[in-house]
Design brief:
With about 140 residues, the protein is an alpha+beta fold. Helix content is about 40%, strand content about 20%. The protein is globular and about 50 Å long.
């Protein structure tokens, strides 16, 4: 049975709760990602900030210059442990329309993230491998 650690991205882009909100938006855009974990200094997961959360900036008006991620992040963040089954994670993502789910160690530290593209890459890689074996030169 596949586990989160088998397909998760381990090079996770994270921010802290005191990160300026517009800096967080720039990080999302620059890295072409739709969300990222919010962590403490020791990588403990405390929330998640996503494009959806940032859409609320339009309603916040002009008083957002000094706003931080803490004011907009979703908390607590839904997350899975690295040994949780991939099937349960995908079920959760489908039911809740989530684009990504942080993966934590047993002590709540962010060790990875699983996004829709990670799952699609796994699907494509698993289907291409058998085809390569059957092809002839």
């Amino acid at each position: 049975m596949l586990k989160a650690k088998d397909i998760m991205t381990t090079d996770v882009i994270c921010v802290k709760k005191d990160t300026p909100i517009y800096e967080a938006a720039q990080i999302l855009m620059k890295n072409d990602i739709t969300g990222m974990p919010v962590v403490e200094d020791d990588m403990t997961l405390i929330g998640i900030i996503s494009e959806k959360d940032l859409l609320r900036l339009i309603y916040a008006g002009e008083n957002t210059t000094d706003s931080t991620v803490e004011s907009f992040m979703t908390q607590p963040a839904a997350c899975y442990k690295e040994d949780d089954s991939l099937n349960s994670i995908i079920d959760f993502m489908l039911i809740n329309y989530f684009r990504r789910v942080p993966v934590t160690s047993r002590d709540g530290k962010v060790v990875g993230i699983i996004s829709r593209p990670d799952v699609l890459a796994y699907i494509l890689n698993s289907k291409q491998a058998p085809a390569a074996v059957h092809s002839s030169p």
